[in-house]
Amino acid sequence: MTRLFAVRLAFFLSGVAGLVYEVLWSRYLGLFVGHGAYAQVLVLAVYLGGMAVGALAVADLSRRLAEPLRWYAGAEGLLALSGVAFHVLFVQVTALSYDVLFPAVGSAAWVGALRWGLAGALILPQSIVLGATFPLMAAGLVRRDAGRPGGGVALAYLLNTVGGAAGVLLAGFWLIGWLGLPGTSAAAAVLNLAAATLVFASHGPAARSGAGGTGGEHADPTARAAADGRGSGGFSGATQPGLPAVLLTVALLTAVASFAYEIGWIRMLSLVLGSATHAFEIMLSAFILGIALGAWAIRRRSDASPDPVRLLGRVQLLMGLAALLSLPVYLASFDVMAWMIQTLPGREGGYAAFNVGRYGLSLAVMLPATALAGMTLPLIAGTLMRAGHGERTIGRVYAFSTFGSVLGVGVAGLFALPLLGLEGLVAAGAALDVALGIWLLERSGRWSGAGARAAVASSAAAVALFVGVTALVDFNPAVVTRGVFRRGQVGGDEEWLSLYYQDGRTATVSAHVGTSDGVIVLATNGKPDASVGPRWIMDRRDTLPVLPIPQGRDYTTQVLAPAITLAHRPAARSVANVGHGSGITTTSLLTSPAVERLVTIEIEPLMVEASLVFWPANRAAFEDPRVSYAFDDARSYFSYRRERFDLLFAEPSNPWVRGTAGLFTREFYERVADAMAEGGVLGQWVQIYELDDDLFLSVLMAMDGVFPAWRAYLVGDADVVIVATTADTLPEPDWSVVATEGFRERTTGAPPFLPQHMEALLLFESRTLRPVLDRGVRVNSDFDPVLDLGSERTRFDQDAAAGAYSFAISRVDLGRHLAGRRLDGHGYAIPPAYGLASALLFERGNWLRGAVEAGGGIAPEEFPEWEEELIHLQTFFLLTASSVQLGRWETWASGFVRAESALHWGTTGWVDPTFYRNVYDFLDRGEAPVEARATVDLMHGYALGDWPRVAAAADELVRRVALGGRWVPPDLLMDVAVLAYLETGRGADAVDAIDRLSERTGRRAEHLRTRLLRALAEAAGAGA
Q1: Contact, 542 vs 525, CB < 8 A?
Q2: How distant, in Å, are the alpha carbons of 536, 715, 813 from that of 810?
Q3: Are the C-beta atoms of 852 and 902 separated by less than 8 Å?
Q4: Residue 100: partners with Cβ closer than 8 Å, 6 or more residues away
Q5: Phi-psi domain of 912 (left: phi exceeds 0; alpha: psi -120 through 50; beta: other)
Q6: For 944-970, what is the HEC assignment?
Q7: Would you call 81 helix, strand, or coil by DSSP?
Q8: Is a pLDDT exceeding 50 seen at residue 215?
């Protein structure tokens, strides 16, 4: 390995490590300040500000150093030490803050200031050291060819930024998932150490880059090169006294514009690519790659130009125009994303292609302008060094550029974006770059005596282009907030009517109403977070026909999830609601007359403002005097308020949304537990329709480590609420909470929610899944973000936690069986909502039994499809009334299983004696084969809990069904057979049944239901 190659490799590794740290710090500080968007602004500001301080500090020092690369290696060593120590320091500082400092301060404003100050202080020292590395490394490269200083700076910039672009992807897509946050920080430290070692090894005393002196101008050959003509000095304007001031001003202001672009583009692209963590990392990497390519493109031209100031002016002018033209390119990207979503999911390699496509879209929007931005720093630094200003120019230019970046991040993220909106922010940055370009062209002409015609012509062309582009570009809310990254659809005004649109500091918040169905949707960054149908925003719903709540809407979840939580603590007086959403959750909690105080903790004020579109459905959330709002991070709020709540309810957005998965971690639940009064309960809303069973289990494992007892209930199409307590046992629910006047008012127009409906919603409880959780499920935690890393993939693949959902729709109720709970049949009561599958199937069985007893019937008007099931039952009864069996017994057995399941669905430990008496009579008359009788014995024995009889029937059926027999559906047989073998002490046979039938069931190996049965069977087999 040559010395030069070793140095270049070190600079590349340094860039990788630097951006790994940035990605890590965004995650760490997001946990502390409470939102990914805030953390992004904070990390960028402190990261860049610290780098500016570091660069300025070494600007004058480097020219007096004989070997700046050895000092660079020392800085890398310091960074390695900080990388190893950072996690421990973060944990100690945050624990001290939550437990001591925040409670002592007590004021929300002061706690916020302290939190931000501490977060910044955690990364400021490392950022200063990082800032010192670039001037030192660039000085080392420049001294190798003092006659081409611009090329040396460009090469250093290129290597460092290419490494940074790779580092973002390396951290986000691989290291964090493999090593967790602490391990990734240590891995970055190893990269720092490798860079330091490479430079030390290649730059011993015999390989000094300087001329052998120890300081002074002797160590800065660039100034002497310019003075004696070996450089490219003598260009137009080189001797002008105002040159440094002009170029440093340009370095500052163009960085302001560039980071205005970054803030604007990242928010814009989140509406196309999705606001998930990996999407952010892709955007950031693409932005940095563009800068690197610009440095590569200018590396030779920088030193060869006879008029670099004019060249810089042209670059600035083109950069502004390219940024402006990124707006129509951005709008075209929606159609490309729609095509990818419609084409790639379900294909082999689809997710990888999707990420490559997202990277390509990011480059299409950002590359032209970012490549031009990457040219500016090498051009400015090289120009000043050619004019004889020496090596200190590198640090000064880098410092001014990074100071401008800090200013751009702060102004754009906190002020300009909410004020100007996305389109206005990018256009403002473009106007600034164009103005700088025109100024440089004019200044260059004055210095060279060429006149100002180029500046005047450029001004006229720029104005024309601005007018044309801004007139043609339309950021139609119906398109940009459609959420194309989920459904692959690009909407328009003919489908949606926009009700609200605002670019906030943390998110773009929008609301619209469907022109065909009247459904109002509230969304953040294009991702729907709440929806309400038209019936719930009417003042007089009692004039409407009584109908079950439609499927595919959020209203059931928003009303039921808090009500079920309340049922476990009906006397709750103090309530905390984490996340405002539509405000309907708050109104549901307020239906309890016992509640005296309810505080909603929401980090984005625009969410509360936008939720007014749901008025009057959420009227109580704004008018009830018991309600107050805290716009803060929940962890911070709980720490400094030190208030204890009887009930807490958390309704975060989907876990794949950047920053949201932090509300499903063990550390978050520990903070929540600290805020719970004795005997208090937590209600946690979890969306299982874009997760898989593994990710869902990671959340359960996080809760289980904090809360000894919990239960899960179905509350929507594929929404679950988990009710947990810090007590040893969770109280049985008091379903009278859904019979109160307030709750009935909230659900007027829907059939009443009755205790039998509510009881049917139970899925499982902590003791049910204990065998799975005890087998080493990966815990979702702050520092091992399993959920955040995996949920974006499951969203793309359109996965669902099928095993968890099977507890709601299976004939075999594993949850109740393993918990020893019985559920008898009831008289039919119309289900209050279409999406509550377990309650719906339970009531279908109740209705069918009533219809059979009555000799027939017509299906309820709301559920006409039930008529088909009744016809099947009647046909089956006619066949069993016959004296002989017509057709194949295997076909009869399949019909029996369907009839039995429909009549008994949802019940546990209960049978319809008339049904089974008729079936057994028919078996006797028809001299049924052993397989048919075994099928009946299997289902009858399961319903009665007669396990020896079930086990004997399973012995007959498992082998036959495993070989392709159709007597019993394989998944149903496996569930019942394994339970029977376990109950009769035959663990080895239970394992064998799973092995034989698993492939036939069609379930994946990680299916929760199969995993639970296998865990039980293997434990029983080991015990035997």
Answers
A1: no
A2: 32, 17, 6
A3: no
A4: none
A5: beta
A6: HCCHHHHHHHHHHHHHHHHCCCCCCCH
A7: helix
A8: no
Question: What gap in Å lies between CA 672 and CA 688, rounded to an integer?
Answer: 22
Kind of pairing between the strands at 709-714 and 762-765:
antiparallel
Tokens 């039921």 belong to 560
Paired strand residues for 628: 599
Question: Tokens 């027999």, residue?
Answer: 965
Span 608-651, pLDDT tens digits: 999 999 999 999 999 999 999 998 888 888 888 878 999 999 99
With b for 16 or more beta-carbon neighbours within 10 A and e for fewer, the 474-487 pattern comes to: ebebbbbbbbbbbe
Element (H, E) at 178: helix 176-202
Residue 652, preceding peptide bond in cis (omega within 30° of 0): no
DSSP secondary structure letter of residue 833: B
Q: How many CB atoms lie within 10 A of CB 418?
A: 14
pLDDT, tens digit, 9 for 90 and up, residues 449-485: 565 666 677 777 778 888 877 777 888 888 888 889 9
pLDDT of residue 152: 64
| Number of other CB atoms surrounding residue 111 within 10 Å | 23
Q: What is the pLDDT of residue 228?
A: 47
DSSP 784-828: S-HHHHHHHHHHHTT---HHHHHHHH-SS-HHHHHHT--B-----
What length does the chain have?
Answer: 1024
Between CA 246 and CA 693 the distance in angstroms is 60
C-alpha distances in Å from residue 302, one per residue of 310, 312, 389, 445: 12, 9, 16, 19
Distances 936 to 900, 914, 966 between C-alpha atoms, Å: 9, 14, 14
Three-state secondary structure call for residue 1012:
helix
Pairing type for strands 520-524 and 527-532 reads antiparallel
Residue 256: partners with Cβ closer than 8 Å, 6 or more residues away:
404, 405, 407, 408, 411, 429, 432
Structure token digits, residue 536: 């719930």
Phi-psi region of 988 (alpha: psi -120 to 50; beta: other; left: phi over 0): alpha
Number of Cβ atoms within 10 Å of the Cβ of 650:
25
The two tokens of residue 156 are: 């250093």
CB neighbour list of residue 376: distance below 8 Å, 6 or more residues apart: 250, 251, 254, 294, 312, 315, 316, 319, 401
Map tokens 């027939």 to a residue: 856
Name the one residue in this structure whose structure tokens are 């042209």: 314
* 713 token code pair: 């209930």
Element (H, E) at 394: helix 392-411
User: Which strands make up the sheet holding 574-578, listed edge to edge?
Assistant: 627-630, 597-601, 574-578, 645-650, 676-687, 719-725, 709-714, 762-765
Residue 1014 has a pLDDT of 95
* Identity at 270, one-letter amino acid code: S
Q: Specify the residue for token string 């550390």.
A: 667
Over range 414-424, report the average pLDDT: 87
User: Rounded to 5 degrees, what are φ and ψ at 479?
Assistant: -100, -55
Look at residues 527, 1015, 1007, 556 and name the one whose alpha carbon lies nearest to residue 804: 1007
Q: Which amino acid is at 810?
A: S
Query: Using CA atoms, how far apart are residues 874 and 851, in angstroms rounded to an integer?
Result: 10
Percentage helix, strand, coil for the chain under 3-state DSSP, each rounded to 5 = 65, 10, 25
Structural tokens at position 49:
């500000």
Q: How confident is the model at residue 56 (pLDDT cuts 50, 70, 90)?
A: confident
CA 95, 96, 98 angle in degrees (round to 5)?
A: 65
